[in-house]
Queue: 2 jobs
Job 1
Amino acid sequence: MMRSLRFEQIGPKAFNPAKSHSLDAHNVKVWPGFDTRMIMKEQGALLSIDVAFKVVRADTVLDYITQLRDQADQKGKDYKTLINEAIVGSTIVTRYNQKTYKIERVEFEMSPATTFDKDGKAISYMEYYKSRYNETVSDANQPLIINKDRKTGNEVALIPELCQLTGLTDQMRADFRLQKDLAQIVHTNAEKKVKECAHLFQTFQENQKCMEKSKAWHIKFSDIPAQLTGYNYDAGNLVLGPTSSGAPNKVDIEKCARDIDRKTQSKMFNTPSLNRWGIFHGDRDAQVAN
């Protein structure tokens, strides 16, 4: 149903590029969407749904690759390794049709000038994207990024110049103004979330393709959310080391939920010696771990 509404699916979440929020001051867009899962409760199978958001950056993958090349030159490192570590596994968006792809690998031996067989005729990727999407590629020497379909195994070659990155960099996460502007969009209360979800189901009922799918699958969504019995536990206090006056330093976890990282930047209650260390990391974070 979400695909019928032209939502883009990324994992269990689906986003609506047509209703994106633009934060021009920070060169990013925020796609609104939903995180949906089937769960089993005492009442039976229920659809668990929550609002979700995806950040799409204005800079292209080529911009980022160029930046990584410069960093590699400055640090005397292999640029291919640095680029692969930074972007393989990332989700990117094509600017010509707003489709999302996960990067499988970077092909440095290929470029937009590389040819492939199309209907028995050799055509370059530059020519293909010009004829198919009317996109002009300015840099013929850039590598190509490859996406692999997990179901079919088919591979798609994408041109970095025509793709945008998603997600935030560490530098962007440290930008107080950006985080403040993002919070205005993504930190919505429960009442607003329920309204957004109700609006989605209303759209399903008004869209012809969605109605056909509902009929074919014998699916009907309730007009109001299911009522569940919940349990509310007091999170309690986080006890830290004494303040300068000697008084115990306690942090109410519930009241300081959004500010907990700043509140805990004080003396610890107890600091045992850390004599033995173990660092577990994925391949992409090897550089950070080292």
Job 2
Amino acid sequence: MWYRVLKARYGEAGGRLREGGRNSSVWWKMLCRIREGVGNWFEDNIMRVVGDGRDTLFWHDRWIGDIPLRLKFPRLFDLAMEKDCSVGDMKDRGWGIDRGAWVWRRRLFAWEEESMRECSLLLCNIVLQDTVHDTWRWLSDPIHGYTVRGAYNFITTTEDMVDRSLVDDVWHKHVPLNVSLFVWRLLRNRIPTKDNLAIRGVLPFTATLCACGCECNESVSHLFLHCTLSADLWALVWNWLGISFVHVGELQQHFIQFTKMAGMPTYSHFFFQDCLVCYYLGAMEGKEQTSISKYGFYSL
């Protein structure tokens, strides 16, 4: 029922609810922004389990194989007259070679007919169950299914997703190259904070307290997020932006959380990325007595 309400309000395209444009609510825009998070984290972890096939989109949903059929057979999808048909409808029309399910915008070329035969061969052993409804499967936890806690843990503990996003997000034409390079190394904990210098034998382990006098060990996360000086600076940033924000524990998650804030339009993400990259370097320069300025950030 909830899906039907949203579909009636905002519309649907390719089996997905539309964002709705300018007339959509702020709440709905925030939910839509979540799926634009790091990578295709949600779509990569769901799969359609087909029963009668009435609620599964033949081309758009991932229901057979590892990817949707529109990606496995992109040429056939482009030529298909009906792109939003269900699996059940295709089965009823007959998806064998030269059957009624295949309706094209033009006659297929020889190599396109070979692709169609491959698709038909893939479908020949599919048996639908008229008394069973289609369901979703959450691949990250097939036993217990989808939960908010499980999705949150998946996002915050998947290093590959974090690293893939960070590779692209620190390099911008509006930011000087040396600044982007510093932040790239910062997010990988490759700058000479006191804890790193102690590990490499440059400093004794008894001399790793933060230079700001807050009686805490100087690490990357502490220096740029949790130190008294850094925390005060972040409070001024939140006040300037007019938003509420909860610090996460690690710098990588903080970078992603800040630059991809839900509810913000996509073009603003690039603005926040530029600001955050420059802010990190500015925070470092404001701590002239720290080990970074004393030993130089090229020493590692």
